[in-house]
Amino acid sequence: xxxxxxxxxxxxxxxxxxxxxxxxxxxxxxxxxxxxxxxxxxxxxxxxxxxxxxxxxxxxxxxxxxxxxxxxxxxxxxxxxxxxxxxxxxxxxxxxxxxxxxxxxxxxxxxxxxxxxxxxxxxxxxxxxxxxxxxxxxxxxxxxxxxxxxxxxxxxxxxxxxxxxxxxxxxxxxxxxxxxxxxxxxxxxxxxxxxxxxxxxxxxxxxxxxxxxxxxxxxxx
Length: 221
Known about the structure:
The structure is a single chain. This protein has helices spanning 2-35, 47-55, 109-120, 125-138, 183-186, and strands at 42-43, 67-71, 77-81, 87-90, 99-105, 149-155, 159-160, 171-177, 199-201, 209-212. It is an alpha+beta fold. The strands form 2 sheets. It has an 8-stranded mixed beta sheet with strand order 3-2-4-5-6-8-10-9, with helices on one face. The chain has 5 helices and 10 strands, in the order H-E-H-E-E-E-E-H-H-E-E-E-H-E-E. The protein folds into 2 domains: 2-36; 42-212, no CATH class.
């Protein structure tokens, strides 16, 4: 009789353990499914999404006060969000491949606006460069304050997390404008020495700038 009772106790214990294990495995599967769910990412296809992703180009502490401009979902170039600080964010253009948003100091706006105007008129990259070069030299066009910075947030994917504004696999690049600067005047090389190293691009021109490309695996808020 004692042996029978003992056997029943063991069977009950084993069944209970199996049930607990099965329950645990189901919970683990559910957790993995939630973690890997594609529901996290949404298409950038609303004005709200354009604003949220454009602001990601700005430093975190400045985002609330940034002005956001760019093409809305109807294809009109408008002010998507009014600003209260010195930074302007340029939203993603939905008609272009991949994703690209930017944020820059307000003193650069005349230079940036002139570039957009010339592009609309059908000018290519070199023509835009040459025209702005001559206009900056003549004093017709303001290049912005020396050291004015452009923040670029870009990538191949066009989906984002609505809760955070993060664009899938997007990375950062920074440009610090120093008109007419050269390698000799700054001590910077004209080519990067390695990943994450600053260098000077377009030296000796109106568009001379320090280029900084953080490593892709560096987490930036």
